[in-house]
Amino acid sequence: MSKKIGHWINGEHRSGAGERSGEVYNPATSKATATLAYASADDTREAILAARAALPEWAARTPLARARVLFRFKALMEEHFEELAGLVSSEHGKVMSDARGEVTRGMEVVEFACGIPHLLKGEHSENVGTRVDSWSVQQPVGVCAGITPFNFPAMVPMWMFPIAIACGNTFVLKPSEKDPSCPMRVAELLHEAGLPEGVFNVVNGDREAVETLLTDEHVDAISFVGSTPIAETIYRVGSEHGKRVQALGGAKNHMLVMPDADTDQAANALMGAGYGSAGERCMAISVAVAVGDETADRLVEALAPKVRALEVGPGTREGVEMGPLVTKEHREKVSGYVDLGVEEGAELVVDGRDLTVEGHEEGYFFGGCLFDRVTSDMRIYQEEIFGPVLIVVRAPDFRSAVQLVDDHEFGNGTAIFTRDGGLAREFAHHVECGMVGINVPIPVPMAFHSFGGWKRSLFGPLHVHGPDGVRFYTRMKTVTARWPTDEEAPAQFAMPTMK
Protein backbone atom coordinates (compact mmCIF):
# COMPACT_ATOMS: atom_id res chain seq x y z
CA MET A 1 0.00 0.00 0.00
CA SER A 2 1.98 2.96 -1.31
CA LYS A 3 -0.73 5.35 -2.39
CA LYS A 4 -1.11 8.44 -0.21
CA ILE A 5 -4.03 10.82 -0.55
CA GLY A 6 -3.96 14.33 0.87
CA HIS A 7 -6.02 17.38 -0.05
CA TRP A 8 -6.55 19.71 -3.00
CA ILE A 9 -6.07 23.31 -1.92
CA ASN A 10 -5.55 26.38 -4.08
CA GLY A 11 -4.99 24.40 -7.25
CA GLU A 12 -2.51 21.79 -6.01
CA HIS A 13 -2.12 18.66 -3.94
CA ARG A 14 -1.31 19.24 -0.28
CA SER A 15 -0.24 16.66 2.28
CA GLY A 16 -1.67 18.79 5.07
CA ALA A 17 -0.40 19.63 8.53
CA GLY A 18 -2.77 17.28 10.35
CA GLU A 19 -1.18 14.39 12.23
CA ARG A 20 -4.10 11.99 11.90
CA SER A 21 -4.78 9.63 9.00
CA GLY A 22 -6.90 6.64 8.03
CA GLU A 23 -6.87 3.83 5.54
CA VAL A 24 -8.96 3.45 2.39
CA TYR A 25 -10.09 -0.10 1.62
CA ASN A 26 -11.23 -2.12 -1.35
CA PRO A 27 -14.45 -3.60 0.07
CA ALA A 28 -14.27 -6.59 -2.28
CA THR A 29 -10.98 -7.72 -0.72
CA SER A 30 -10.87 -5.91 2.65
CA LYS A 31 -7.33 -4.83 1.69
CA ALA A 32 -6.12 -1.29 2.36
CA THR A 33 -5.35 0.52 -0.89
CA ALA A 34 -4.30 3.96 0.33
CA THR A 35 -3.49 6.09 3.35
CA LEU A 36 -5.70 9.17 3.65
CA ALA A 37 -4.55 12.30 5.45
CA TYR A 38 -7.21 13.77 7.75
CA ALA A 39 -7.44 17.52 7.55
CA SER A 40 -6.84 19.48 10.70
CA ALA A 41 -8.77 22.65 11.48
CA ASP A 42 -5.81 24.63 10.10
CA ASP A 43 -5.82 22.62 6.86
CA THR A 44 -9.54 23.23 6.48
CA ARG A 45 -9.19 26.94 7.17
CA GLU A 46 -6.43 27.12 4.56
CA ALA A 47 -8.86 25.72 1.98
CA ILE A 48 -11.58 28.13 3.09
CA LEU A 49 -9.24 31.13 2.84
CA ALA A 50 -8.08 30.00 -0.61
CA ALA A 51 -11.73 29.91 -1.68
CA ARG A 52 -12.34 33.33 -0.14
CA ALA A 53 -9.32 34.83 -1.92
CA ALA A 54 -10.43 33.40 -5.28
CA LEU A 55 -14.03 34.61 -4.91
CA PRO A 56 -13.86 38.23 -6.20
CA GLU A 57 -12.16 37.41 -9.49
CA TRP A 58 -14.29 34.31 -10.17
CA ALA A 59 -17.57 36.05 -9.29
CA ALA A 60 -16.63 38.91 -11.61
CA ARG A 61 -16.24 36.61 -14.59
CA THR A 62 -19.15 36.56 -16.99
CA PRO A 63 -21.54 33.61 -16.67
CA LEU A 64 -20.54 32.58 -20.18
CA ALA A 65 -16.85 32.47 -19.24
CA ARG A 66 -17.66 30.32 -16.22
CA ALA A 67 -19.82 28.03 -18.37
CA ARG A 68 -16.98 27.52 -20.84
CA VAL A 69 -14.81 26.11 -18.05
CA LEU A 70 -17.59 23.66 -17.24
CA PHE A 71 -17.93 22.70 -20.89
CA ARG A 72 -14.22 21.81 -20.92
CA PHE A 73 -14.62 19.94 -17.63
CA LYS A 74 -17.47 17.88 -19.06
CA ALA A 75 -15.35 16.96 -22.09
CA LEU A 76 -12.56 15.82 -19.77
CA MET A 77 -15.02 13.74 -17.76
CA GLU A 78 -16.13 12.02 -20.93
CA GLU A 79 -12.50 11.36 -21.83
CA HIS A 80 -11.82 9.86 -18.38
CA PHE A 81 -15.24 8.26 -17.94
CA GLU A 82 -14.07 4.67 -17.39
CA GLU A 83 -11.30 5.82 -15.05
CA LEU A 84 -13.77 7.71 -12.84
CA ALA A 85 -16.22 4.81 -12.76
CA GLY A 86 -13.37 2.47 -11.87
CA LEU A 87 -12.35 4.65 -8.94
CA VAL A 88 -15.93 4.59 -7.66
CA SER A 89 -16.19 0.81 -7.97
CA SER A 90 -12.80 0.08 -6.40
CA GLU A 91 -13.46 2.09 -3.22
CA HIS A 92 -17.23 1.90 -2.84
CA GLY A 93 -17.70 -1.62 -4.19
CA LYS A 94 -20.65 -1.03 -6.53
CA VAL A 95 -20.69 -2.87 -9.84
CA MET A 96 -19.20 -1.09 -12.85
CA SER A 97 -22.53 -0.62 -14.62
CA ASP A 98 -23.85 1.16 -11.53
CA ALA A 99 -20.65 3.21 -11.20
CA ARG A 100 -20.97 4.27 -14.84
CA GLY A 101 -24.56 5.28 -14.20
CA GLU A 102 -23.47 7.35 -11.20
CA VAL A 103 -20.85 9.23 -13.17
CA THR A 104 -23.36 9.81 -15.98
CA ARG A 105 -25.95 11.28 -13.60
CA GLY A 106 -23.30 13.58 -12.14
CA MET A 107 -22.30 14.72 -15.63
CA GLU A 108 -25.93 15.61 -16.31
CA VAL A 109 -25.75 18.22 -13.55
CA VAL A 110 -22.60 19.62 -15.18
CA GLU A 111 -24.54 19.83 -18.46
CA PHE A 112 -27.34 21.69 -16.67
CA ALA A 113 -24.84 24.08 -15.08
CA CYS A 114 -23.35 24.83 -18.51
CA GLY A 115 -26.60 26.67 -19.22
CA ILE A 116 -25.99 29.13 -16.42
CA PRO A 117 -26.11 32.25 -18.66
CA HIS A 118 -29.76 31.48 -19.27
CA LEU A 119 -30.46 30.44 -15.68
CA LEU A 120 -29.16 33.74 -14.25
CA LYS A 121 -31.13 36.08 -16.49
CA GLY A 122 -33.34 37.37 -13.67
CA GLU A 123 -36.53 39.39 -14.22
CA HIS A 124 -37.29 42.88 -15.46
CA SER A 125 -40.39 45.05 -15.20
CA GLU A 126 -40.57 48.32 -17.09
CA ASN A 127 -42.53 51.28 -15.77
CA VAL A 128 -43.64 49.83 -12.44
CA GLY A 129 -44.33 53.46 -11.58
CA THR A 130 -44.11 56.62 -13.62
CA ARG A 131 -40.65 56.44 -15.25
CA VAL A 132 -39.63 53.80 -12.70
CA ASP A 133 -38.19 50.40 -13.70
CA SER A 134 -37.50 47.41 -11.49
CA TRP A 135 -35.40 44.31 -12.04
CA SER A 136 -33.92 41.44 -10.10
CA VAL A 137 -30.49 39.87 -10.39
CA GLN A 138 -29.05 36.68 -8.89
CA GLN A 139 -25.61 37.11 -7.39
CA PRO A 140 -23.20 34.62 -5.77
CA VAL A 141 -23.63 33.65 -2.12
CA GLY A 142 -19.86 33.44 -1.49
CA VAL A 143 -17.79 30.54 -0.24
CA CYS A 144 -19.85 27.34 -0.32
CA ALA A 145 -19.03 23.98 1.24
CA GLY A 146 -20.26 20.49 0.43
CA ILE A 147 -20.19 17.53 2.81
CA THR A 148 -20.96 14.35 0.93
CA PRO A 149 -21.54 10.64 1.73
CA PHE A 150 -19.77 7.44 0.73
CA ASN A 151 -22.55 5.95 -1.38
CA PHE A 152 -22.18 8.32 -4.35
CA PRO A 153 -18.62 9.71 -4.34
CA ALA A 154 -18.99 11.07 -7.89
CA MET A 155 -22.65 12.01 -8.27
CA VAL A 156 -23.51 13.72 -4.99
CA PRO A 157 -20.59 16.20 -5.07
CA MET A 158 -21.70 17.01 -8.61
CA TRP A 159 -25.20 17.74 -7.33
CA MET A 160 -23.51 20.69 -5.63
CA PHE A 161 -20.29 22.20 -6.95
CA PRO A 162 -21.05 22.55 -10.70
CA ILE A 163 -24.03 24.80 -10.01
CA ALA A 164 -22.27 26.60 -7.16
CA ILE A 165 -19.23 27.56 -9.23
CA ALA A 166 -21.32 28.27 -12.33
CA CYS A 167 -23.22 30.84 -10.24
CA GLY A 168 -19.93 32.54 -9.34
CA ASN A 169 -19.26 31.00 -5.93
CA THR A 170 -16.13 29.21 -4.78
CA PHE A 171 -16.29 25.78 -3.17
CA VAL A 172 -14.75 23.55 -0.50
CA LEU A 173 -15.68 19.85 -0.71
CA LYS A 174 -15.38 17.43 2.21
CA PRO A 175 -16.07 14.00 0.68
CA SER A 176 -16.41 10.73 2.54
CA GLU A 177 -13.17 9.38 3.91
CA LYS A 178 -14.23 5.91 2.70
CA ASP A 179 -13.90 6.63 -1.04
CA PRO A 180 -11.95 9.86 -1.67
CA SER A 181 -10.11 9.05 -4.93
CA CYS A 182 -12.84 10.05 -7.37
CA PRO A 183 -13.39 13.53 -5.83
CA MET A 184 -9.63 14.11 -5.90
CA ARG A 185 -9.46 13.13 -9.57
CA VAL A 186 -12.37 15.47 -10.29
CA ALA A 187 -10.37 18.32 -8.72
CA GLU A 188 -7.48 17.59 -11.08
CA LEU A 189 -9.82 17.57 -14.10
CA LEU A 190 -11.36 20.90 -13.06
CA HIS A 191 -7.87 22.37 -12.84
CA GLU A 192 -7.03 20.95 -16.28
CA ALA A 193 -10.25 22.51 -17.61
CA GLY A 194 -8.97 25.95 -16.64
CA LEU A 195 -10.69 26.54 -13.31
CA PRO A 196 -8.65 29.18 -11.44
CA GLU A 197 -6.74 28.24 -8.31
CA GLY A 198 -8.82 28.31 -5.15
CA VAL A 199 -12.23 28.13 -6.82
CA PHE A 200 -12.58 24.41 -6.01
CA ASN A 201 -10.87 22.78 -3.04
CA VAL A 202 -11.04 19.34 -1.41
CA VAL A 203 -10.29 18.59 2.23
CA ASN A 204 -10.36 14.96 3.31
CA GLY A 205 -11.00 13.90 6.84
CA ASP A 206 -13.65 13.50 9.46
CA ARG A 207 -15.46 15.45 12.16
CA GLU A 208 -12.71 18.03 12.69
CA ALA A 209 -12.92 19.22 9.09
CA VAL A 210 -16.74 19.23 9.19
CA GLU A 211 -16.91 21.26 12.40
CA THR A 212 -14.51 23.81 10.96
CA LEU A 213 -16.63 24.23 7.84
CA LEU A 214 -19.75 24.61 9.95
CA THR A 215 -18.37 27.30 12.21
CA ASP A 216 -15.84 29.28 10.17
CA GLU A 217 -17.02 32.82 9.53
CA HIS A 218 -15.78 32.79 5.93
CA VAL A 219 -18.12 29.97 4.84
CA ASP A 220 -21.43 31.32 3.60
CA ALA A 221 -23.40 28.21 2.61
CA ILE A 222 -23.36 24.49 3.42
CA SER A 223 -24.80 21.57 1.42
CA PHE A 224 -24.97 18.15 3.05
CA VAL A 225 -26.18 14.65 2.17
CA GLY A 226 -26.14 11.86 4.77
CA SER A 227 -28.09 10.35 7.63
CA THR A 228 -30.94 12.24 9.28
CA PRO A 229 -29.36 12.69 12.75
CA ILE A 230 -26.26 14.25 11.19
CA ALA A 231 -28.31 16.27 8.69
CA GLU A 232 -30.31 17.75 11.54
CA THR A 233 -27.12 18.66 13.39
CA ILE A 234 -25.55 20.17 10.27
CA TYR A 235 -28.66 22.28 9.68
CA ARG A 236 -28.84 23.47 13.29
CA VAL A 237 -25.15 24.28 13.78
CA GLY A 238 -24.71 25.83 10.36
CA SER A 239 -27.80 27.98 10.81
CA GLU A 240 -26.69 29.06 14.26
CA HIS A 241 -23.48 30.34 12.65
CA GLY A 242 -25.39 32.39 10.10
CA LYS A 243 -24.96 30.12 7.10
CA ARG A 244 -27.42 29.15 4.41
CA VAL A 245 -27.91 25.37 4.79
CA GLN A 246 -29.52 22.55 2.86
CA ALA A 247 -29.17 19.15 4.54
CA LEU A 248 -30.57 16.01 2.99
CA GLY A 249 -31.13 13.13 5.41
CA GLY A 250 -32.29 9.52 5.46
CA ALA A 251 -35.09 7.63 3.82
CA LYS A 252 -37.39 4.64 4.04
CA ASN A 253 -38.88 4.55 0.58
CA HIS A 254 -42.13 2.65 0.02
CA MET A 255 -43.37 1.15 -3.25
CA LEU A 256 -47.06 0.36 -3.37
CA VAL A 257 -48.00 -2.67 -5.45
CA MET A 258 -51.69 -2.62 -6.34
CA PRO A 259 -53.71 -5.75 -7.18
CA ASP A 260 -53.91 -4.75 -10.86
CA ALA A 261 -50.13 -4.31 -11.24
CA ASP A 262 -48.13 -6.68 -13.41
CA THR A 263 -46.45 -8.87 -10.78
CA ASP A 264 -43.34 -9.65 -12.84
CA GLN A 265 -42.81 -5.98 -13.70
CA ALA A 266 -43.22 -4.99 -10.05
CA ALA A 267 -40.87 -7.74 -8.88
CA ASN A 268 -38.19 -6.78 -11.42
CA ALA A 269 -38.52 -3.14 -10.42
CA LEU A 270 -38.09 -4.06 -6.76
CA MET A 271 -35.01 -6.14 -7.51
CA GLY A 272 -33.19 -3.20 -9.08
CA ALA A 273 -34.52 -0.62 -6.64
CA GLY A 274 -34.02 -2.74 -3.53
CA TYR A 275 -30.76 -4.53 -4.25
CA GLY A 276 -28.98 -2.26 -6.72
CA SER A 277 -25.83 -0.76 -5.19
CA ALA A 278 -26.36 -3.29 -2.35
CA GLY A 279 -29.20 -1.10 -1.10
CA GLU A 280 -26.77 1.71 -0.23
CA ARG A 281 -28.91 4.40 -1.85
CA CYS A 282 -31.05 7.08 -0.25
CA MET A 283 -33.54 6.41 -3.05
CA ALA A 284 -33.51 2.62 -2.67
CA ILE A 285 -36.91 1.00 -2.27
CA SER A 286 -36.68 -0.79 1.05
CA VAL A 287 -40.42 -1.30 1.70
CA ALA A 288 -42.80 -3.03 -0.70
CA VAL A 289 -46.38 -2.36 0.36
CA ALA A 290 -48.55 -5.06 -1.17
CA VAL A 291 -52.24 -4.18 -1.21
CA GLY A 292 -54.18 -7.32 -0.37
CA ASP A 293 -52.93 -10.74 0.71
CA GLU A 294 -53.26 -12.21 -2.77
CA THR A 295 -51.07 -9.43 -4.17
CA ALA A 296 -48.53 -10.02 -1.41
CA ASP A 297 -48.44 -13.78 -1.96
CA ARG A 298 -47.87 -13.35 -5.70
CA LEU A 299 -45.21 -10.70 -5.14
CA VAL A 300 -43.22 -12.70 -2.56
CA GLU A 301 -43.46 -15.81 -4.73
CA ALA A 302 -42.02 -13.85 -7.65
CA LEU A 303 -39.33 -12.10 -5.60
CA ALA A 304 -37.91 -14.99 -3.57
CA PRO A 305 -36.21 -16.94 -6.40
CA LYS A 306 -34.86 -13.72 -7.90
CA VAL A 307 -33.30 -12.69 -4.59
CA ARG A 308 -31.76 -16.15 -4.11
CA ALA A 309 -30.31 -15.98 -7.62
CA LEU A 310 -28.66 -12.58 -7.21
CA GLU A 311 -25.15 -12.67 -8.67
CA VAL A 312 -22.96 -11.22 -5.92
CA GLY A 313 -19.26 -10.55 -6.36
CA PRO A 314 -16.59 -7.90 -6.90
CA GLY A 315 -17.93 -4.93 -8.82
CA THR A 316 -15.35 -5.25 -11.59
CA ARG A 317 -16.39 -8.81 -12.49
CA GLU A 318 -18.55 -9.15 -15.60
CA GLY A 319 -22.14 -10.17 -14.95
CA VAL A 320 -22.17 -9.30 -11.25
CA GLU A 321 -25.43 -7.69 -10.10
CA MET A 322 -24.48 -6.68 -6.56
CA GLY A 323 -21.13 -5.83 -5.03
CA PRO A 324 -20.01 -5.75 -1.38
CA LEU A 325 -21.07 -3.37 1.34
CA VAL A 326 -18.70 -0.49 1.92
CA THR A 327 -17.06 -1.55 5.22
CA LYS A 328 -16.92 -4.45 7.64
CA GLU A 329 -18.66 -2.31 10.27
CA HIS A 330 -21.52 -1.53 7.93
CA ARG A 331 -21.92 -5.21 7.02
CA GLU A 332 -22.19 -6.02 10.72
CA LYS A 333 -24.79 -3.27 11.15
CA VAL A 334 -26.93 -4.61 8.31
CA SER A 335 -26.59 -8.17 9.63
CA GLY A 336 -27.73 -6.92 13.02
CA TYR A 337 -30.89 -5.50 11.49
CA VAL A 338 -31.67 -8.88 9.91
CA ASP A 339 -31.16 -10.55 13.30
CA LEU A 340 -33.50 -7.95 14.80
CA GLY A 341 -36.17 -8.57 12.18
CA VAL A 342 -36.21 -12.26 13.03
CA GLU A 343 -36.46 -11.43 16.73
CA GLU A 344 -39.33 -9.03 16.04
CA GLY A 345 -41.32 -11.82 14.39
CA ALA A 346 -41.01 -10.95 10.71
CA GLU A 347 -40.83 -13.86 8.27
CA LEU A 348 -37.33 -14.11 6.77
CA VAL A 349 -38.07 -15.57 3.34
CA VAL A 350 -34.52 -15.23 1.98
CA ASP A 351 -31.50 -15.06 4.30
CA GLY A 352 -28.28 -13.65 2.82
CA ARG A 353 -26.28 -13.34 6.02
CA ASP A 354 -23.97 -16.29 5.41
CA LEU A 355 -23.00 -15.48 1.86
CA THR A 356 -19.36 -15.91 0.88
CA VAL A 357 -17.79 -15.15 -2.50
CA GLU A 358 -15.19 -17.65 -3.68
CA GLY A 359 -11.79 -16.04 -3.95
CA HIS A 360 -13.01 -13.00 -1.97
CA GLU A 361 -13.80 -14.60 1.38
CA GLU A 362 -12.50 -11.55 3.25
CA GLY A 363 -14.62 -9.08 1.28
CA TYR A 364 -17.56 -7.29 2.83
CA PHE A 365 -20.19 -9.23 0.92
CA PHE A 366 -23.76 -9.69 2.10
CA GLY A 367 -26.48 -11.59 0.28
CA GLY A 368 -29.91 -10.23 -0.53
CA CYS A 369 -32.48 -10.61 2.25
CA LEU A 370 -36.25 -10.63 1.92
CA PHE A 371 -38.73 -10.24 4.79
CA ASP A 372 -42.48 -10.78 4.62
CA ARG A 373 -45.26 -9.93 7.08
CA VAL A 374 -43.44 -6.93 8.50
CA THR A 375 -45.54 -4.54 10.58
CA SER A 376 -45.16 -0.82 11.13
CA ASP A 377 -44.21 -1.19 14.80
CA MET A 378 -41.03 -3.12 13.93
CA ARG A 379 -37.69 -1.34 13.94
CA ILE A 380 -36.73 -2.92 10.61
CA TYR A 381 -39.69 -0.97 9.20
CA GLN A 382 -39.10 2.26 11.08
CA GLU A 383 -35.33 2.65 10.62
CA GLU A 384 -33.12 3.03 7.56
CA ILE A 385 -31.08 -0.16 7.10
CA PHE A 386 -29.07 0.99 4.06
CA GLY A 387 -28.34 -2.50 2.83
CA PRO A 388 -29.76 -5.25 0.58
CA VAL A 389 -32.77 -5.91 2.78
CA LEU A 390 -36.25 -5.62 1.26
CA ILE A 391 -39.29 -5.88 3.50
CA VAL A 392 -42.86 -6.61 2.45
CA VAL A 393 -45.70 -5.02 4.38
CA ARG A 394 -49.26 -6.17 3.73
CA ALA A 395 -51.97 -3.48 3.57
CA PRO A 396 -55.67 -4.27 3.30
CA ASP A 397 -56.48 -1.44 0.89
CA PHE A 398 -55.12 1.59 -0.95
CA ARG A 399 -55.94 4.08 1.82
CA SER A 400 -54.10 2.04 4.43
CA ALA A 401 -51.10 1.71 2.13
CA VAL A 402 -50.90 5.46 1.54
CA GLN A 403 -51.27 6.06 5.27
CA LEU A 404 -48.13 4.00 5.89
CA VAL A 405 -46.15 6.34 3.66
CA ASP A 406 -47.70 9.45 5.19
CA ASP A 407 -47.11 8.33 8.77
CA HIS A 408 -43.43 7.47 8.37
CA GLU A 409 -40.93 10.04 9.66
CA PHE A 410 -39.06 10.01 6.34
CA GLY A 411 -40.52 11.36 3.12
CA ASN A 412 -37.77 11.09 0.54
CA GLY A 413 -39.23 9.04 -2.32
CA THR A 414 -42.10 6.69 -3.03
CA ALA A 415 -43.63 4.81 -5.94
CA ILE A 416 -46.80 3.05 -7.02
CA PHE A 417 -47.23 0.25 -9.54
CA THR A 418 -50.72 0.12 -11.01
CA ARG A 419 -52.68 0.19 -14.28
CA ASP A 420 -55.26 2.59 -12.82
CA GLY A 421 -54.46 6.14 -13.98
CA GLY A 422 -56.98 7.77 -11.67
CA LEU A 423 -55.60 5.98 -8.64
CA ALA A 424 -52.04 6.85 -9.63
CA ARG A 425 -52.98 10.51 -10.01
CA GLU A 426 -54.62 10.54 -6.58
CA PHE A 427 -51.53 8.93 -5.07
CA ALA A 428 -49.14 11.43 -6.68
CA HIS A 429 -51.27 14.37 -5.63
CA HIS A 430 -51.88 13.46 -1.99
CA VAL A 431 -48.94 11.35 -0.77
CA GLU A 432 -46.66 13.05 1.79
CA CYS A 433 -43.36 12.57 -0.02
CA GLY A 434 -40.93 14.71 -1.98
CA MET A 435 -40.41 12.49 -5.04
CA VAL A 436 -43.01 10.18 -6.54
CA GLY A 437 -42.75 7.44 -9.17
CA ILE A 438 -45.67 6.01 -11.13
CA ASN A 439 -44.56 2.62 -12.47
CA VAL A 440 -41.03 4.02 -11.96
CA PRO A 441 -39.30 2.46 -8.94
CA ILE A 442 -36.58 5.07 -8.28
CA PRO A 443 -38.03 8.50 -9.16
CA VAL A 444 -34.77 10.48 -9.14
CA PRO A 445 -35.41 13.70 -11.08
CA MET A 446 -33.23 14.68 -14.01
CA ALA A 447 -30.68 17.43 -13.41
CA PHE A 448 -32.95 20.17 -14.75
CA HIS A 449 -35.51 19.36 -12.05
CA SER A 450 -34.72 19.40 -8.32
CA PHE A 451 -34.06 16.51 -5.94
CA GLY A 452 -35.24 16.46 -2.33
CA GLY A 453 -37.57 14.88 0.18
CA TRP A 454 -40.11 15.97 2.74
CA LYS A 455 -40.38 15.62 6.52
CA ARG A 456 -37.16 14.38 8.18
CA SER A 457 -35.53 13.62 4.84
CA LEU A 458 -34.69 17.28 4.21
CA PHE A 459 -33.74 20.20 6.44
CA GLY A 460 -34.01 23.55 4.72
CA PRO A 461 -36.47 24.89 2.15
CA LEU A 462 -34.52 24.27 -1.06
CA HIS A 463 -33.76 21.02 -2.87
CA VAL A 464 -30.55 20.23 -4.79
CA HIS A 465 -29.74 20.82 -8.47
CA GLY A 466 -32.29 22.06 -10.98
CA PRO A 467 -33.99 25.43 -10.34
CA ASP A 468 -33.70 25.07 -6.55
CA GLY A 469 -29.96 24.52 -6.88
CA VAL A 470 -29.59 27.86 -8.66
CA ARG A 471 -31.75 29.53 -6.00
CA PHE A 472 -29.68 28.04 -3.18
CA TYR A 473 -26.34 29.17 -4.62
CA THR A 474 -27.48 32.72 -5.43
CA ARG A 475 -28.84 35.72 -3.56
CA MET A 476 -31.54 37.75 -5.21
CA LYS A 477 -31.10 41.50 -5.42
CA THR A 478 -33.95 43.72 -6.63
CA VAL A 479 -33.19 47.13 -8.09
CA THR A 480 -35.75 49.91 -8.47
CA ALA A 481 -34.59 52.88 -10.55
CA ARG A 482 -35.84 56.30 -11.61
CA TRP A 483 -33.61 58.66 -13.55
CA PRO A 484 -34.08 62.37 -12.79
CA THR A 485 -35.82 64.64 -15.26
CA ASP A 486 -36.13 68.41 -15.49
CA GLU A 487 -39.33 68.27 -13.48
CA GLU A 488 -38.81 68.94 -9.80
CA ALA A 489 -40.24 66.14 -7.66
CA PRO A 490 -41.72 67.26 -4.33
CA ALA A 491 -40.88 65.43 -1.14
CA GLN A 492 -43.18 62.45 -0.41
CA PHE A 493 -43.91 61.43 3.15
CA ALA A 494 -46.47 58.71 2.46
CA MET A 495 -45.55 55.10 1.66
CA PRO A 496 -44.61 55.13 -2.07
CA THR A 497 -47.26 53.37 -4.16
CA MET A 498 -45.77 53.88 -7.60
CA LYS A 499 -48.83 55.52 -9.12
How many domains, in number, for the residues? 2
Kindly provide the name of the CATH class of the largest domain: Alpha Beta
Overall radius of gyration: 25 Å
Uncertain regions: pLDDT < 50 for 5+ in a row?
none
Distance between the termini: 74 Å
Name of the CATH architecture of the largest domain: 3-Layer(aba) Sandwich
What is the CATH homology-level superfamily of the largest domain?
A: Aldehyde Dehydrogenase, Chain A, domain 1
Helix and strand composition category: alpha/beta
Number of helices: 16
Biggest β-sheet strands, sense, barrel: 7 strands, mixed
Tell me the strand percentage band: 15-25%
Biggest sheet, spatial arrangement of strands: 15-16-17-14-13-19-20
How much helix, percentage-wise, in residues?
A: 25-40%
Report the count of strand segments: 23
Principal-axes geometry comes out as: globular
According to CATH, the fold-level topology of the largest domain is: Aldehyde Dehydrogenase, Chain A, domain 1
Mean pLDDT, to the nearest integer, reads: 96
